[in-house]
Inverse folding.
C-alpha cells in the first residue's frame, strides 16, 4: 500500500583516513556528517516520476518504465528508480523534491547522499513497514547507480558511511569482508574542519576510473584478487605506476589500523601525523591531488592544524584539518563531527 507522502534524509560523509582502499579490499574510517540531502516524495497516480532539484531550480519528468539515460542529477534519479524496480521494489508515480545543505562536488559525497535519500524516500512511500533491502543491499544498489547510470566506478565507502553512520562514532569498515565496527570519536576540545579547495570534481570524468584500472592491472600482475592482500615484497617488483599505487594502498591500510589505535588511546596528536602521512601518499604515490588542493592543505597546516589531508576521490574537493584545543581553524572552514546516518523522516 503506497503512502501519500514520505521523506528521507541522507548525510554526506568525511573519511577520517583510508582513501582509495575501499575498492582494493582494505579498511577505511569514515563518518556521516550532519549536512546532507533531503528528499520529499508525494505519491501521484500517473505512473510518472516528476523530480525537482530545489537549489538548481531544475526539473525532470519521466515515465516509471523509461530507462533512457540522463546527465547530472537527473542520472541519479533515473538510476535509482530503475535499480529499485530491478530489485523488485514496488514503485508508483511520485513527485520528488530534492533539497539540502551539502555542497555538490566538494568531496563530501553529495552523490551518495542523493542516491541514498532518493532510495529511502521512494521505499518509504511505496512500502509499509521495514524495507526488504538491508543497508548493505541498499549501498550496493546505490553504487550500481553510480557505475551504470553516472559512469563512476566508485567503491562502497560513501554509501555505507551515509547509510550506517552514527553520532559521535567513526565506522571501521573492512572492505574485504564488509564488516563494520563502530569506533567512538572522542574529540574532547579538538575539532575537525573541512575546507573546500574550490575545485569541483566528477568521478566519472576525473582520473578516478583510471586509478581503478591501474589497481586492477596491479592485481592481475600479482595474481591477487584485491590489492590490499598483496605483500610488501611482491609490490616492490611491480612496474610503475602500479608499484606506487599498490604501495599507497598497503601503507594506507596500515595507517587506518594505527588511526584506530590512536583513537582508542585518545592520542589525537598521532592521528594528526597519520593524516599528514596519508596526504603525502595520496599526492606522491597515488597522484590524486591538485595544486589547488595542495594550497588548501598548506593553508590548514599554516593555521596550525595538527594534521591535514585531502579527502575523497581526489582531483578537487575538500581537505580535512584536525585542530588542537585553542588553535583557530582558518576562516571559511566548516566544523564537522559524526552525526546520525540516513533515515526516514517522521511526517
Ligand atoms: C570516492 C568514492 C569512494 C572511494 C573514495 C576514495 O569518494 O566514491 O568509493 O573510493 O573516492 O577513498
Amino acid at each position: 500500500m503506497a503512502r501519500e507522502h514520505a521523506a528521507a534524509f541522507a548525510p554526506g560523509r568525511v573519511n577520517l583516513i583510508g582513501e582509495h582502499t575501499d575498492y582494493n579490499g582494505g579498511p577505511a574510517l569514515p563518518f556521516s556528517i550532519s549536512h546532507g540531502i533531503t528528499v520529499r516524495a508525494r505519491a501521484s497516480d500517473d505512473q510518472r516520476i516528476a523530480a525537482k532539484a530545489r537549489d538548481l531550480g531544475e526539473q525532470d519528468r519521466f515515465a516509471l518504465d523509461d530507462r533512457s539515460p540522463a546527465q547530472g542529477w537527473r542520472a541519479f534519479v533515473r538510476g535509482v528508480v530503475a535499480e529499485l524496480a530491478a530489485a523488485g521494489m514496488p514503485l508508483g508515480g511520485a513527485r520528488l523534491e530534492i533539497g539540502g545543505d551539502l555542497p555538490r562536488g566538494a568531496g563530501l559525497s553529495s552523490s551518495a547522499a542523493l542516491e541514498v535519500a532518493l532510495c529511502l524516500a521512494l521505499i518509504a512511500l511505496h512500502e509499509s513497514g521495514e524495507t526488504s533491502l538491508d543497508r548493505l543491499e541498499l549501498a550496493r544498489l546505490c553504487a550500481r547507480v553510480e557505475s551504470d547510470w553516472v559512469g563512476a566506478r566508485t567503491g562502497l565507502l560513501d554509501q555505507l558511511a551515509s547509510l550506517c553512520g552514527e553520532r559521535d562514532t567513526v565506522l571501521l569498515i573492512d572492505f574485504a569482508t564488509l564488516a563494520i565496527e563502530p569506533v567512538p570519536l572522542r574529540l574532547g576540545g579538538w575539532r575537525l574542519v573541512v575546507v573546500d579547495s574550490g575545485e569541483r570534481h566528477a568521478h566519472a570524468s576525473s582520473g578516478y576510473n583510471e586509478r581503478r584500472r591501474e589497481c586492477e592491472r596491479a592485481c592481475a600482475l600479482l595474481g591477487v584478487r584485491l590489492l590490499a592482500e598483496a605483500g610488501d615484497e611482491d609490490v616492490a617488483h611491480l612496474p610503475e605506476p602500479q608499484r606506487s599505487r599498490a604501495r599507497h594502498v598497503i601503507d594506507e591500510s596500515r595507517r587506518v589500523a594505527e588511526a584506530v589505535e590512536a583513537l582508542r588511546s585518545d592520542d589525537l596528536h598521532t592521528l594528526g601525523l597519520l593524516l599528514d602521512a596519508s596526504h603525502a601518499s595520496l599526492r606522491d604515490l597515488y597522484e590524486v591531488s591538485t595544486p589547488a588542493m595542495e594550497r588548501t592543505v598548506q593553508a590548514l597546516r599554516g593555521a596550525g592544524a595538527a594534521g591535514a589531508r585531502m579527502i575523497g576521490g581526489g582531483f578537487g574537493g575538500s581537505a580535512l584539518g584536525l585542530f588542537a584545543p585553542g588553535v583557530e581553524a582558518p576562516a571559511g572552514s566548516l566544523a564537522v563531527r559524526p552525526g546520525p546516518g540516513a533515515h526516514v523522516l517522521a511526517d
Remarks:
- The chain has two domains: 5-179+339-344, 186-336.
- The mean pLDDT is 95.
